[in-house]
Every structure is written in structure tokens, then in C-alpha cells.
């Protein structure tokens, strides 16, 4: 199994590369790019949430506790007194960090259901639910965050699977096949529960129409291809060979536009013919 440092470093590099493409494609507002990128970084350590004594598990449950305690606080702000809000905030914080943490680890096993493609899809859909319904982001932004989460999650599973092969001793470890799998055959109840959670998350998530139409846009990919390499010089100091400088620009450039910051800012654009 790859260690925490490897997972977080690789996840950050991959999320950063995706963020660069997203910024160049101009498909979301810049203020949305940071939380979307963080979703990819979180995805790169999320599969280790079922490892009780791991740093990812402690960090993730601490982060969840902070997030949900403030979500409850803001939702109840107009309905209770200050003293009651303090109790609600603190109660939610302690319950998620310690109570939910204990319940979760008493019902899971490492490299079980959470180390599977099924769990990766659930994490992506759940991210879209959080961004779309709790953070009130545009549907396209919500599913883009879900896509970042999915990629980060798959990076983690792939690294764990690669570490199961010992290149020096030319042997395959006993853990091979337990990290990157479609689902866990050993625990049918856990697999069924994860499948049900995935179905519920997809049902609660906003429509993925804007996301799919955006990433399938020919104009967007043409614009990215145009900006892939510098046209005249690298950083203004190194000349580019003429074969790159003479490349004609894309016919329409980047025409996908910027998605609004929130769902209510503007209607979703229709897909191009």
C-alpha cells in the first residue's frame, strides 16, 4: 500500500493538472476552481477513510465534522437562540468527529467496499450532491467537482494496486487485487449498501446535462488544443520552432463560456447542435 505522503502528493499533482485544463477551458468561474480542485485532492486519500488509525481517516472525519457542524449552524441560524445554536454546532461537531467515526469503523474493514470502483462512483455522486444542494453551486460545477473526486479516488486505488507488485523481488504480494476492484465479493451486504447509497446520491444530485455537454463540446477541446503549446516563445525567452508558430488557431476558440457561480445566477446553457 502506498503511504499517505505518496497519495497526497500524487493526488495534488493530478488535481493541479486537471485544474490547469479547467482554467484554460474557461468552463467555470475562477472562484469555483479552488473547491473543485480540493475535491480531487480529498479523493486521493478518501479510500483510506476506513483505516481506523490512519492520518487520512482522522483528517477526513475532522473535516467532515467542521463542515457539517457549520452547515447545521447556518441552516438553523434563524430558528434558535444563540445558546441553542452553540449546542447544535458543538453537538454536531462531536457526533461526526467521534460518534460517527466510531460507528463507521466498527462496520467497515480496510480494503473492503471502500476500495472499489463502486465506492469511487458513490464518492463522485455524493460530491455532486454536496456541491449542488448544500453549497448551492451550479449543476455543471457540482458534477465537475464529482469528476475531480472520481479521478482522485482512482489515482489512490491505482497507486495501492501498483504497490502490490514487488518489482525488485519479482513477486506479487498477497494484497494484489484488493485495491482496484469493481466491487467487494467478500462482503455482499456492504456492496449492496454501497450500491443503494450510489443510487440515492444520483437521485439527489443535480442534472449532469450541463457537465456532459460542456466536456463534450468540440469548441472547448479545439480551444485547449490551440493553447496546449506556446505559439511564439516559452515564457517569452525561448523561441518556438516554426512548425508550432505556424499552426492556425482553432476556428471558434473557447466558446463554452463560464458557468455561473451559483445555481440561481443564470439558466443552464443549451447544448450546441
UniProtKB/TrEMBL annotation:
Pfam families: YdjM. Keywords: Hydrolase, Membrane, Transmembrane, Transmembrane helix. The chain crosses the membrane at residues 60-80, 86-104, 116-135, 141-159, 187-205. Coiled coil: none annotated. Residues 246-273 are annotated as: Disordered. One of its GO terms (molecular function) is hydrolase activity. The keyword Transmembrane applies. This is Metal-dependent hydrolase. It comes from Hyphomicrobium nitrativorans NL23.
